[in-house]
Amino acid sequence: MRRITHVTIAFALLACAAASTVSAKVTSRLITVGQDFRIAGKTVSAGTYRFAYDDAKNELTVSDRKTKEVIARAEARAEKSSKGTFPMLLLEGESAPLSFAGLSFDGKQVIKTSAAASLGQ
Q: What secondary structure does DSSP assign to 14-70, as a single string?
């Protein structure tokens, strides 16, 4: 009887472990960008795009709002935003097209591409 109880408990624990798989959280937002910008070595023209961040892959994806076609993918990382608010979309540079520097979701999570991914290397 004791052996059956141990086997039953072992199967129950196994079932619980299998049921609680790690799920990736993909956060996305539609953003209208008023000027051309560069991300992952690609120039993206002004328009409305879906910016999606996959925290399991550490990847930022930019896709067309209407066609759902992926325009660019870049390695990225999430950080807690520091004091104050972070702009929804941050572009930087001295000449057009500006380079993608960061993205904020609800002012809490800041997504930044790595330097190599931003330069297309």
A: HHHHHHSPPPP-EEEEEEEESS-EEETTEEE-SEEEEEEEETTTTEEEEEETTT--E
Domain span at 65: 23-118
11 in any annotated domain: no
Chain centre to alpha carbon of residue 1: 51
Residue 33 falls within a domain, yes or no? yes
Summarised one tens digit per residue, pLDDT across range 19-44 is 544 556 888 899 999 999 999 889 99
- pTM (2 d.p.): 0.68
Count of the separate structural domains present in the chain: 1
